[in-house]
């Protein structure tokens, strides 16, 4: 299902719910209810070594694989470390690979209720994680929002980034994902977040793939289960409303790390033209647009994406 079709279905459900609430006598602050969480138990975590590290900010969940120079993988919004399942084994042949869940992702648990879910806050979360696992400097690979957080981290902490890879990552003050108005509008956003059932989530994930047959039931179960946690839903909505890409846009010329930008030619969330626009403004950057690939390029097209990443990081 295309992104705009998914948007219309979810918006229609929101509209119906708003109509019900408008005619109801219950107070609005009790109208949302508690979104249900999936009881699915990750099979992926049974196959990898799941780790945690405690900080004042959060108890970070991550995996560590391989040996060699460190690479940190940062998944996109609404995703978690499972998103890198095909990338990790390839990179681990030459690197120590850390796949971290940042606040709102996976199995990381915040210790601070006042966390801001802004670019500065997410950048600081990356710094906090690196400190906690003893990494002064690392290569960083980020996808989508995870790429935007990584880009801002590279702007704020240039001495800590060896190399930077951005996969379909917003960083320009430019066109945003089509569903943005749904989540950024007061009231609508809260309803949309709570109404994101497994089936709606599945439609959203399929919209980020060009090769939709790769979005299996296992993929949806693994991704949806942690997203369905109330704290992660709340953080996800806050990110929609608080990420200000004017901050990354104004600092592009200051990125000193060699930068690889990969983008799916069939990305229906962000136009592929943004890849070249980013590369033109980052001093040491190259952009490659991959045909037949969607927004989640490393999962949608691992055979094309992984060799480019391994070559760049090596």
TrEMBL record:
<dbReference type="InterPro" id="IPR029058">
    <property type="entry name" value="AB_hydrolase_fold"/>
</dbReference>
<protein>
    <submittedName>
        <fullName>4,5:9,10-diseco-3-hydroxy-5,9, 17-trioxoandrosta-1(10),2-diene-4-oate hydrolase</fullName>
        <ecNumber>3.7.1.17</ecNumber>
    </submittedName>
</protein>
<dbReference type="InterPro" id="IPR000073">
    <property type="entry name" value="AB_hydrolase_1"/>
</dbReference>
<dbReference type="InterPro" id="IPR000639">
    <property type="entry name" value="Epox_hydrolase-like"/>
</dbReference>
<feature type="signal peptide">
    <location>
        <begin position="1"/>
        <end position="22"/>
    </location>
</feature>
<keyword id="KW-0378">Hydrolase</keyword>
<keyword id="KW-0732">Signal</keyword>
<dbReference type="Pfam" id="PF00561">
    <property type="entry name" value="Abhydrolase_1"/>
</dbReference>
<dbReference type="GO" id="GO:0102296">
    <property type="term" value="F:4,5-9,10-diseco-3-hydroxy-5,9,17-trioxoandrosta-1(10),2-diene-4-oate hydrolase activity"/>
</dbReference>
<feature type="domain" description="AB hydrolase-1">
    <location>
        <begin position="69"/>
        <end position="300"/>
    </location>
</feature>
